[in-house]
Every structure is written in structure tokens, then in C-alpha cells.
Write a structure and sequence with these properties.
The protein is of the alpha/beta class. The protein contains 10 helices and 7 strands. Helix 3 (65-80) runs parallel beside helix 4, helix 6 (145-154) packs parallel to helix 7 (170-185) and helix 7 (170-185) runs parallel beside helix 9.
């Protein structure tokens, strides 16, 4: 059996950056290197630090049937993922619920599972995404707008968080339509999370052209329970709006 070169990564690929495999001048074990690679992959995907450890297993249900149903719906989606690939069916999901109900947790958990199965993926918070696109106009970003939009159109799995939270304008509607419509035409999955009620409120925010395509592309997970778990975690009882 051929030996893995000493300067290779743990799976025999290209070696990781020196900072990724050395800790106080000690070479990390293969298990530690795999953990580093996994963390770097999540970071490159765009998942925020706060949500990098979110899984379906650590989603808090606390006896709530609604929250258990959300987890079960996510598992069902993952178990059937790939069956719709390249077909005119519903390869994506749309998570709808109020603020602080766990949508981003579930969104990231699904994305992580798909990445673990080898799918390329990107996560974007929509208001931040639009800010990034605007920054390409004055040279603040290395990539231009076409490069960024092409990446979002071509990646296997695209997650759009907080859709509908952006300030509506013709410019934002045009960019979002281009991304969603391209993925619609190519039957590529999009994972969406929104605070707005589906479909009426989200349609008013993003326009019927986009909402109609999402309706055909995505299965619905939710609505999420109305309790704001961020408040609950610090002892404040408040329902979402």
C-alpha cells in the first residue's frame, strides 16, 4: 500500500496552510487536522462563527412538538436530497417564522449535512450579500459583481438567510431575480430563511416573480413556533411578530 506523503493533508490531498497544521510548533494529529479542515470549509462557505456548530442534534426542542416537527421535516428533506436533482421538482426548502425562532440554526444544520456529503455550498445573509454586491462598484472587493453572481448561480447549494429583510428597490429585486431565476432554470437547490409570513408578506417584499419561483422550487419548513428563543435564553418571555 502506498504511503501518504508526509507533507500531504490527512486525506492525501494538498497540505493545509502551516498555521492549520501546527500548534505551538507541534504537528496536529490527523483527527485534529480534519477538524481544522472542516472549520475552514465552513468559514469559506460563509457560515457565521456563531452558527458554525449548529446541527439538527443540538437544536433545542424542550418538549415542543412544533420544534420536533421542524427537525423531522429537515431530516426528511435531507434523506430525499438528490432524488430531485436536475428535475423540475422541489429541490430546495423555505423556512418561515418570526425572529429568534431557530431558522438560521436549521438552515445551517441542513447546509452542513449537505457539505458533509460532498456538495459545494455557499451561505449568504441577504442584506449583507447586497451590501457586498454594491461594494464591487467602487473597487472595495477583488471580485466584480458578475463574478459574485455567477458563483451564487453555479454553486451546488445556495443558502439565502433573512430574505425579505433587505430594503426593497428595483436594484435589489433585479439582482435577487437574476440569482433565483438562474437556479430555477438550472434546477439547482436554494435554501431560504425568512422572518416574513409565506407567501403573502414575502411576496410583497421581494416581488411576485421571485416568490412564484421559490414556491415551485422549495418545500416549506414551518411556520416555526412563535416564541423568541433568544429572549427565552435570558429569561424574557416574548412572542415573535
Amino acid at each position: 500500500m502506498a504511503k501518504t506523503p508526509a507533507n500531504s493533508g490527512p486525506d492525501g490531498g494538498a497540505p493545509p496552510p502551516k498555521t492549520a497544521i501546527y500548534d505551538n510548533d507541534s504537528i496536529l494529529s490527523p483527527e485534529e487536522q480534519r477538524a481544522v479542515f472542516a472549520a475552514l470549509r465552513l468559514e469559506r462557505c460563509g457560515i457565521p462563527r456563531r452558527f458554525m456548530d449548529k446541527t439538527l442534534e443540538n437544536f433545542v426542542t424542550r418538549g415542543s412538538k412544533e420544534r420536533r416537527d421542524v427537525v423531522q421535516a429537515a431530516r426528511s428533506y435531507l434523506s430525499s436530497f438528490g432524488a430531485h436533482e436536475g428535475k423540475d421538482e422541489r429541490p430546495g426548502v423555505l423556512l418561515s417564522g418570526g425572529t429568534g425562532t431557530g431558522k438560521t440554526h436549521i438552515l445551517v444544520a441542513i447546509l452542513r449535512e449537505l457539505m458533509a456529503k460532498g456538495h459545494s455550498a455557499r451561505y449568504y445573509n441577504v442584506p449583507n450579500l447586497l451590501k457586498l454586491l454594491r461594494a464591487t462598484y467602487d473597487g472595495q472587493e477583488d471580485l466584480d459583481e458578475d463574478d459574485l453572481i455567477n458563483e451564487m448561480c453555479q454553486v451546488e447549494v445556495l443558502a439565502l438567510d433573512d430574505l425579505g429583510a433587505e430594503k426593497p428597490s428595483d436594484w435589489t429585486a433585479d439582482r435577487l431575480y437574476l440569482i433565483v431565476n438562474t437556479r430555477y432554470e438550472e434546477c439547482r437547490p436554494v435554501l431560504v430563511a425568512t422572518n416574513l409570513a409565506w407567501p403573502e408578506d414575502l411576496e410583497r417584499a421581494i416581488g411576485r416573480r421571485i416568490a412564484s419561483r421559490l414556491a415551485e422550487m422549495c418545500s416549506l419548513i414551518g411556520p416555526f413556533p412563535s416564541q423568541d428563543w433568544r429572549y427565552s435564553s435570558v429569561g424574557i418571555q416574548r412572542r415573535t411578530t
